[in-house]
Specification:
The protein has 426 residues and is an alpha/beta fold. Among the domains are: 112 residues, Probable tRNA modification gtpase trme, domain 1 (Gyrase A, domain 2), CATH 3.30.1360; 142 residues, P-loop containing nucleotide triphosphate hydrolases (Rossmann fold). The chain has 14 helices and 12 strands. The protein starts with a strand and ends in a 7-residue tail after the last helix. About 1% of the residues have low confidence.
């Protein structure tokens, strides 16, 4: 944190503009060295940039943000350069030659914002999700998390539990005085009310489903039309589709967004009882494993023979005359003609939206969910016991879980993993 860091924070050159960020105690000195002066705070100024030898590097917009009221909580400068590769490289060389400056590591600007109290850990996780968001639904949820939608609720719960803890400590410290001899009549109910609020959030759809996509597995025996339908749904000839049984040997997956909803479609090997082909047998085993991971199975085999927690019967040859077809399929489609594809996609979007968090919901990732589960368990238990010492310890356990969620008690390994998700310059 004593170093001053710099990095290109805009897209890779060439580009119209390249934004170079400088953050740390030597930011003002670096700005004066390269732009001849430190301009008025928070006003864009045009300056000629020079290296240590006096050679002009560029004419750029320069902005100066004195800390701590900045994105990183430190002195911060931005150089809005022309976005050519040679210009970016020349400015980076000039900055690297200055004493006390070094190139930033991935996520280091955001990590400094966290370390300096500008954001908490839940907001940082939201920002990481925002940088990788590919659909409108992912963008909305990541932005809400980055803006503190979860943090504000956790802070409220923490403050509430802290007030309840104060009541318990009063009993423990001054239990011999008449006015604090017992816990208030509504104490247990208040604890239980808070625990139920946590439980409501814990049963909401998970962030992993939102981030990775609603997983739809296409399954059935060989030559049941899986690969052809898979190609239709992903809009690409990703899978080899032939009349030869056993063509698909492995699991093939593709992420796709439909109407702003993220999906992962999975094509699998044809399921059959026996095969002499060792590679096909491995493919069948992997296909069986995919059935257990699916949010939905599109079954194109004989009716009522599919497996999966949630399964739709699909007749995949709606364009062909058949003596025998499924009596009551959810959908009749044809990958060859496109018949029924739009209806299938619409139905998939409706189902996925029910399984994914709504625009105003908070979606918890695994780390957040586990910590809130710990807090909920401690609160539920504390509402059922009468020993003040035990209640106080359980409430401390809940507060500790809240602190870890917000990053008040975070390990370096966990922080390294999180901020390693960011690009250099963010």
């Amino acid at each position: 944190m004593s170093d001053t860091i710099f990095a290109l924070s805009s897209g890779a050159p060439p580009a119209a503009i390249g934004i170079m960020r400088i953050s740390g105690p030597e930011a003002a000195a670096a700005l004066k060295a390269i732009a001849s002066e430190v301009p008025k705070p928070r006003f864009a100024s045009v300056r000629r940039l020079h290296d240590a030898r006096g050679d002009q590097l560029d004419q750029a917009l320069v902005l100066w943000f004195p800390g701590p009221a900045t994105a990183t909580g430190e002195d911060l400068a931005e150089l809005h350069l022309h976005g050519g590769r040679a210009i970016i490289a020349a400015v980076e060389r000039a900055l690297a030659e200055m004493p006390g400056l070094r190139r930033a590591a991935p996520g280091e600007f955001t990590r400094r914002a966290f370390a300096n109290g500008r954001i908490d850990l839940a907001e940082a996780e939201g920002l990481a999700d925002l940088l990788t968001a590919e659909t409108e639904l992912q963008r909305r949820h990541a932005l809400a998390l980055a803006n503190g939608s979860l943090s504000s609720r956790v802070y409220e719960w923490r403050d509430r539990v802290l007030m309840l803890s104060a009541q318990v400590e009063a009993v423990l410290d001054f239990g011999d005085e008449d006015d604090v001899s017992d816990l208030p009549p509504r104490f247990a109910a208040q604890v239980e009310d808070t625990a139920r609020e946590l439980d409501t959030l814990l049963v909401a759809p998970k962030a992993e489903t939102l981030r990775e996509g609603f997983r739809v597995v296409l399954a059935g025996p060989p030559n049941s039309g899986k690969s052809s339908l898979f190609n239709r749904l992903v809009g690409d000839d990703a899978a080899i589709a032939t009349p030869v049984p056993g063509t698909t040997r492995d699991v093939l997956s593709r992420p796709v967004a439909i109407d702003g909803v993220p999906f992962v479609f999975v094509d699998t090997a044809g399921l059959r009882d026996a095969t002499d082909d060792t590679i096909e047998a491995i493919g069948i085993e992997r296909a069986t494993q995919e059935l257990s991971r699916a949010d939905l199975v599109l079954w194109m085999g004989p009716e009522a023979e599919g497996q999966g927690v949630r399964l739709w019967e699909v007749d995949s040859f709606a364009d062909l005359p058949k003596d025998v077809s499924k009596a009551t399929p959810r959908h009749r489609v044809s990958a060859a003609t496109g018949q029924g594809i739009a209806e299938l996609q619409s139905d998939l979007v409706t189902l996925a939206r029910q399984a994914l968090p709504g625009p105003s919901d908070v979606a918890l990732n695994r780390r957040q969910r586990e910590l809130l589960e710990d807090a909920s368990a401690a609160l539920h238990q504390s509402s059922t016991v009468t020993n003040p010492l035990l209640i106080a310890e359980l409430l401390r356990t809940a507060r500790a879980a809240f602190d870890r969620l917000l990053g008040r008690a975070a390990t370096e390994d966990m922080l390294d993993t999180l901020f390693g998700r960011f690009c250099i310059g963010k």
